[in-house]
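Here is the promised in-class demo. Please do not try to memorize the tokens; focus on the logic of going from shape to residues.
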């Protein structure tokens, strides 16, 4: 058997060691770079989230041009567009909606999207903008119409209905927009919904209709109006309240 000279073996051993050492150094260097980059990225995201909250469209535009994801989320898992809708940051919202990479249907952890929060906040300009981009009006479960009706935002209620929103949309527990409007004593909202075909007799999963909601939440004006429509005494008791009525 041919023997490898000691010097050659030592050289080969050193060579192997050097390769392993070099590989380890490269790996450590990459790991260091990654760990060093993480705080910078986190800081950039924090800065972007702050810019969204303050409706600083210039800062947001700069961050997006620098490679930040328009679908990034804050620490609570809220997408930037949903955050903009919540804060009524309309300039930033318009910027995000115009970005082809933005998912305009993105939801937060509670299942709320930008149109729902815009409808809740009475931000009709953002609702119009989202509709113009074909955002879903009839979201499964809680829908934008529920949110608009709950705050008595009549202009948005009418806008959604004009764009084929289902007037008797049922939430996961069967609550309709009419029930939400009744709960808040929003008389004009109730009238708009009824004029557009809302069913007074629909009940949710625990057997409450819109009049029951009005009575349970002590909405006197709606109680009077709905009682007259249904031909029942305004002082008739509501169905027994249960947890699901809330």
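The designed amino acids, position by position:
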């Amino acid at each position: 058997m041919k023997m490898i000279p000691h010097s050659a073996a030592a050289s080969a051993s050193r060579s192997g060691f050097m390769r392993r050492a070099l590989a380890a150094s490269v790996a450590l260097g990459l790991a260091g770079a990654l760990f060093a980059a993480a705080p910078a990225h986190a800081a950039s995201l924090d800065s972007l989230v702050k810019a969204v909250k303050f409706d600083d469209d210039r800062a947001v535009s700069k961050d997006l041009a620098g490679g930040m994801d328009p679908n990034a989320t804050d620490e609570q898992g809220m997408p930037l567009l949903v955050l903009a809708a919540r804060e009524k940051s309309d300039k930033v919202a318009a910027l995000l909606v115009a970005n082809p990479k933005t998912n305009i249907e993105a939801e937060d952890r509670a299942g709320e999207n930008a149109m729902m929060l815009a409808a809740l906040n009475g931000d009709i300009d953002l609702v119009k903008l989202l509709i113009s981009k074909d955002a879903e009006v009839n979201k499964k479960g809680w829908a934008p119409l529920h949110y608009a009706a709950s705050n008595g935002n009549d202009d948005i209620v009418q806008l959604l209905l004009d764009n084929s929103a289902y007037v008797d949309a049922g939430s996961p527990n069967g609550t309709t927009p009419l029930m939400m409007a009744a709960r808040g004593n929003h008389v004009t909202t109730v009238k708009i919904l009824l004029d557009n075909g809302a069913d007074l007799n629909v009940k949710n999963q625990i057997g409450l209709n819109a009049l029951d909601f009005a009575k349970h939440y002590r909405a006197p004006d709606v109680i009077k109006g709905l009682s007259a429509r249904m031909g029942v005494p305004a002082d008739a008791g509501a169905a027994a309240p249960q947890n699901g009525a809330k």
